[in-house]
């Protein structure tokens, strides 16, 4: 499993480097660096802005005594999208843009919830709800 992860990450970085090389030859090195700097700034802004938004939504959910599972998964996807924008490269930018689109993000969240539910059922986890009063 660890070898697969290392192979995937290595392939990802090699594709990113090849993409940067191709784009720099297409539009020039200065414009490529400028695009990467703009990506980083957008990613930092996204992490900062969406982070506060998610915290507000989670607090609201907790205040009315609801579990904020959907809000947390949505926030994790947006945070990951921001991190992908900070990573230099255009393949990560495409993945980030897909995560920023609500359609793809909600499809991913549905798959994550299905995977988590299946994992909890296979490992025989049980949750007990405690209500005071």
TrEMBL record:
Keywords: Membrane, Transmembrane, Transmembrane helix
Spans traversing the lipid bilayer: 6-23, 30-51, 71-104
Domain of life: Bacteria
Protein's UniProt name: UPF0716 protein FxsA
